[in-house]
């Protein structure tokens, strides 16, 4: 461990490991600093691993005590990932999330349909709107991705670095860009990724 992380890095890792075993017993490793808000509304599955500076937040928009941020088993979250839930964010098993990813089902204001918010009001005075997010099993989310409210990402899919996901992504797809678009789908007959 010392050879890989150095003395100071090994001490930080040991402190993070002790913190994990005291406060998040079913997690594999929570690296510090780590920020969790409204823990009672968050479920962390067995085997969670985080990088440095991660932030998990639950802000129920109704007076409820239910879980609104659910992480499945063996989820790996790298450095500086920010996940904020107001209604429901579900992340399945074996999901890998790269660094600097933002996932939120919350939005300051309503910008479509009836009674949209005015640009003359201050953003922080606008009522929060929510729309659930589902990330299914075995998804890989690349560096710097933003996943916006109301999105479902299908099983086994890959989201390319710096993508902004604004619409559903089907199972076994690769999506890239801003907004993210499907560029490949897995063909189980040929066992290969095919361009769309």
TrEMBL record:
A Pfam family: Hexapep
Transferase recorded as keyword: yes
Keyword annotations from UniProtKB, A to Z: Acyltransferase, Repeat, Transferase
Residues in coiled coil: none
Protein name per UniProt: Lipopolysaccharide O-acetyltransferase
Domain of life: Bacteria
GO molecular function ontology, one term from the record: acyltransferase activity
């Amino acid at each position: 461990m010392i050879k890989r992380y150095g003395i100071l890095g090994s001490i930080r890792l040991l402190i993070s490991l002790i913190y994990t075993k005291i406060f998040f017993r079913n997690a594999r490793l929570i690296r510090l600093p780590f920020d969790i808000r409204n823990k009672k509304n968050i479920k962390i599955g067995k085997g969670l691993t985080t990088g440095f500076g991660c932030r998990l937040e639950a802000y129920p928009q109704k007076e409820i005590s239910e879980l609104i941020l659910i992480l499945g088993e063996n989820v790996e979250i790298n450095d500086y990932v920010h996940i904020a839930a107001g209604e429901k964010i579900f992340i399945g098993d074996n999901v890998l999330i790269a660094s600097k990813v933002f996932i939120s089902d919350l939005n300051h204001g309503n910008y479509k349909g009836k009674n949209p918010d005015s640009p003359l009001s201050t953003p922080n005075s606008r009522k929060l709107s929510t729309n659930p997010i589902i990330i299914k099993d075995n998804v890989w989310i690349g560096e710097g991705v933003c996943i916006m409210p109301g999105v479902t990402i299908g099983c086994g899919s890959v989201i390319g670095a710096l993508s902004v996901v604004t619409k559903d992504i089907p199972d076994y797809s690769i999506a890239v860009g801003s907004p993210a678009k499907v560029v490949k789908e897995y063909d189980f007959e040929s066992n290969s990724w095919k361009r769309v």
